Amino acid sequence: MEESLSPLVSVVIPSYNRAALLPRAITSVLTQTFSDLECIVVDDGSTDQTEQVVAEFQDPRLRVIRLPDNGGGGRARNTGIQVAHGELVAFLDSDDEWLPRKLERQVARLRECGDPMATVAYCRCMVRDTLAGRMWRRPHRVYEGDVFSYLLEGWNPTTLSLFLVERRSLLAVGGFSETLPSAQDYDLWLRLAEASYRFVATDEVMVVKHEYSDNQISDDPTTPVITSEILDCRWGPAIRRHLGWAGYRRWRRNRWNIAQWAHFRRIKIAVAHNRRIEAWRHWARMCRLLPYSRRYVCGAFLMTALGFRCYYLLVHAVDAVRRSVRHPQSATTT
C-alpha cells in the first residue's frame, strides 16, 4: 500500500556530524505505530558519512535535505518546516529517540482537545546519563492551556524532541530564531504562547534523551551567557511587566544557572576521562559566576576532588537514602 503524498505528520531531524547516532533516531521514527508520516533529515553541512547512513534506509517516507554549510539548529529546523508536507511537524534531535507510540498518543491528544488554538503537544522524557549510568524523568511539571506565564517564569520542557506542533502556527510566528546560539526552542514557545496558541500534554514518557553521547552546543559555557543576554533584550520587559522585578531577578538567576550547568558538564566529561587539571580550570571559571548555582559549584568540586567513580558512588548512596525517606515501606520490603 502506498504512503500518502501529503502525510499528516512531518518529522524534522536536524543533524551535524552525527552519522554514528542518526540510525537510532531514524529507526525510532520509522517504527512508530502512527505511520502517516514523512521523515526529513536536514543535513546541516556535515562532513561525515551522514548521507550514506541515511541512504541505507530503504523507506520512501525518508528524505534528506542537504545544506551547503553549517548554519545552526534554528536554520536547519526552519528549512525542515519550509519543505514539510504535513499539517503537523514533530522535532527529533539526532541524539534522541522516541518510544513507539509517541506520535500516536500526541496526535490523538490534539484531536480530542477540541480547542482550535491548541496547536502544541508535548510529553515527558527519560533522560539517560550514559557516563554516570543514571536515569530520571523530565520535565518535573507539565502545564496545559495558556502557558505564557509559566514560560516567563523560566519553565521550559527539556528537549525539542518532546514536541508536535501544527505547521500553520509555526509559520505564523516565524519559526525558530536563527540569531540565537541556543535556547531557540524556549524563544519559540514564548512566541507561540504570546500569540495565544495553547499547549496540551501527554503526561507520560515517550522520549529517551541521551546525555553525554556526543558533543552538544550547550557544552560551551559561553553559549548560554550570550543566549541569556539576547533573551533578556527580547523578553526582559515582558517578564518585568508580568512578574515584577523579583520575578525578573529569579529569571536572570535561572539563566545563569544554565551557564553553570554547562561548566559542570565539561567538568564531568574531563573527570570521567581523567583530565583533572582541565577539570580544575573549568571549576575556577565556575567560581567567577558565584553566588549563582552554589550547588553546581560544590558538586563540581567534589567530583574533581574525589574522582568520577567515588563521586557517583556517593550520589547513588544519597539517592538511596532519599528514596528510603520518601517511601519507607517499600525500602523495608526490598
From TrEMBL:
Residues 10-138 form the Glycosyltransferase 2-like domain. Keywords: Membrane, Transferase, Transmembrane, Transmembrane helix. Pfam families: Glycos_transf_2. GO terms for molecular function: transferase activity. Coiled coil: none annotated. InterPro entries: Glyco_trans_2-like, Glycosyltransf_2, Nucleotide-diphossugar_trans. The chain crosses the membrane at residues 296-314. This is Glycosyl transferase.
